[in-house]
Input
Amino acid sequence: MSNESNGERSLRWLKRAVAVPYLWLLLFFLTPFLIILKISVADPVVAQPPFTPLLEWGADGFEGIRATFSNFAFLFQDGYYGIIYLASLKMAAIGTLLCLLLGYPMAYYIARQPPERRNLLLLAVILPFWISFLLRVYAWIGLLNNRGVINELLLWTGVIDRPIAMLYNDFAVYLGIVYSYLPFMILPLYSNLERMDLDLLDAAADLGARRWRAFVDVTLPLSVPGIIGGCLLVFIPAVGEFTIPALLGGADTLMIGRVLWDEFFINRDWPVASAVSVVLLLLLIAPIMWFQRLQSREHEAGR
Amino acid sequence: MKRRAPMLVSVVAFGYALLYVPIISVVIYSFNDSRLVTLWGGFSLRWYASLLEDSKLLEAALLSLRIAFVSATFATALGAIVALALHRVARLRGRLLLSGMVTAPLVMPEIITGLSLLFLFISMANLLGWPMTRGATTITIAHITFSMAYVVVVVRSRLAGMDETLEEAAMDLGGRPLAVFFDVTVPMLLPALVSGWLLAFTLSLDDLVISSFVSGPGATTLPMFIFAKVRLGVTPDINAITTIIIALVAVAVATASIVTNRRRPVAAK
Output
């Protein structure tokens, strides 16, 4: 910033170049949402052309749109969807909490190690993330199965005499959420805990605070931004999660991502699917905005 | 902090076990001769052999690799420009919108991204006559869009810790902005560009939900193929695929860390 003229000159082409990704995002990220919104409010003029190629699914473009409107209202009248939205929020919330309960001690432990060990431990947290998410979720099927590794082991050691049902239920989904999203919880927590001024803890100790006391009074309040960041990073995608409930959940594990998928691919009811996703987006808009603000504040601090 | 905390250590150990036990068990069982997944029937490579005969699987894997390569390359280029603009241009027009559009995909439920992109492609086909068929191209566009967001995060964090005096010096010596960019800025950003590319590549290779929405009847990616199989339960050949992917990832991570380490003395300066 010291050399204004040179800086300006170099920025001129950057300002021009950024138009490309800008337009890209406007077209492929923002426009799709506007389209989905328009379909859901059933504007016939806008909605009719997009549905004409749906001939293979039936030539009733206009009827399809009328159905959209009634289905959108139906979404609120029928208790079914309300229950699923609530169930998804609940499962995501509990999953996030469990993730925090496991992730916080891990982040705390890593942040208090000597630097070389810290990097190694952190790498070990991130490493599984590079292996296909789908395959990692799949791996649990082999472990949790009635004839799976865990049950066989417990049977063999005599802890149980009958296999425990661990797969295709809510327990498996919680486990899947904690397992898949753990790195997303640990990373923001770690970067917060690592930056924390250890002198404050020393001061608390010097003043005679017990370790637990110092943690509750000093460390925990200071790590609130990390907790919020990690929780949002887990909670928001978990609400709309599809793969985990589809592979590990039972028939009665209804999560909205799975319902949307079925509406779309099995019932082929596109208007209902788009109405379902609009409501999901509305539910998530507050946490997403919160996350955005957190991110931009982080960047302001980093600059 | 000299005292040990056995509770803490055991929770941490449990966490790491949770992260690694599934992966390790899949690797072990991929070498299992028995068709019954949990019974050990001796060491065998039969599931790897059966993979090679599965032409549908190989086709899906090749398609996924092609899409991942192209989308990672575009996402890295576009993402790097966004990161630079957000970092350097103080009064960027529409800054709030831009940073919003590159942060939102990080947390957006995939299922919404997939559905909305599909509607976009249908609308475009109607209004512009393109894309007439959905498949590799539409999947690639979708992947560029969401993985760009991750590249931006990686490059921005690198930019935040970078020393800009080298570029200023190059400018003062009369370097043209583009020349300075490619001769000074890009080499300094290289570690971030490499890890951003690898991240985008992995995300693309991994994506099931968005691909399923924006794909057409002709195109089946590897995750789509695997999902269709896995939905029916555990199949030993999927264990073999997983093991191969783990091996590839291990090689990629090792390569990336070597590249980063070699670069570090120059870039971190």
Remarks:
- Residues 79-111 of chain A form the longest helix (33 residues).
